[in-house]
Amino acid sequence: MNKRRNQCIHCNYSYCIKAGITSQNKQRYQCKKCKKKFIGNYSYRAYHKSTNHNIQQLIKEGVGIRGISRLLDVSKTTVLKKILKIASKVVKPPIPKNITIEIDELKTYTQSKTNERWVVAAYCRETKKVRISTKTCV
Ligand SMILES: [Zn+2]
Q: From ligand 1's centre to the CA of 37, what distance in Å?
């Protein structure tokens, strides 16, 4: 038996047992540690390990859901579900409850209407500090 197939894709535990066959006649395995089932060789690209990382990178580059779907050859529904799953793992930054922060935003253009820019200013009442961030929209 192939060593790679024996290794759990979720927790990398090395002891997995056979757990039946899929409808496409592929061997299914179950991890003895985390009890999750998986297939040794996925043919659908959405289940590859690198798909979540690729989706994250494409979102950072500003690619839309349809674009990600076309580029990764994965359905739009799967892309949306993966984005929600990735977003649920994001840890919110700690903001103390006794501090009041005022946030204001401004949309402007530089040189021409094609160069749209956002200016976001955050003001903390207690510390009287202002943080300004600018973002270019493509
Ligand atoms: Zn496992």
A: 8
